[in-house]
Amino acid sequence: MGEDERSGSTESHRSGCSPHSHSSIGCGKKARKARTIFTDKQLQELEATFDKQKYLSVQDRMDLAQRMGLSDTQVKTWYQNRR
């Protein structure tokens, strides 16, 4: 009986591709990006803009993101979640 048989480990388990694994690193998938923590100032500006305009054009979204030091995707996601 080999070492692997006694410990019950498998090749897929060693490579990090276990179906019970919480991490997708090593399975050919992209790792999830960390959650964004917005500053109070950023939240105030996002909320104020949202109160005036529930949907942003691409240009407005890009301008807002640049002004606030965020990515376009972060602003887009915040708006989607807020709606």
Automatic annotation (TrEMBL):
GO CC terms: nucleus
GO MF term set: DNA binding
Native source species: Brugia timori
Pfam (any one): Homeodomain
Domain Homeobox: 29-83
Alphabetical list of PANTHER family matching this protein: HOMEO BOX HB9 LIKE A-RELATED, VENT HOMEOBOX
Keyword Repressor: no
Ranges annotated as biased composition (Basic and acidic residues): 1-14
Annotated localization: Nucleus
CDD domains: homeodomain
InterPro entries, A to Z: HD, HD_metazoa, Homeobox_TF, Homeodomain-like_sf, HTH_motif
Region of interest (Disordered), residue spans: 1-31
Keyword DNA-binding part of the UniProt annotation: yes
UniProt keyword annotations, A-Z: DNA-binding, Homeobox, Nucleus
Entries under Gene3D superfamilies matching the protein: Homeodomain-like
Transmembrane intervals: none
Protein name in UniProt: Homeobox domain-containing protein
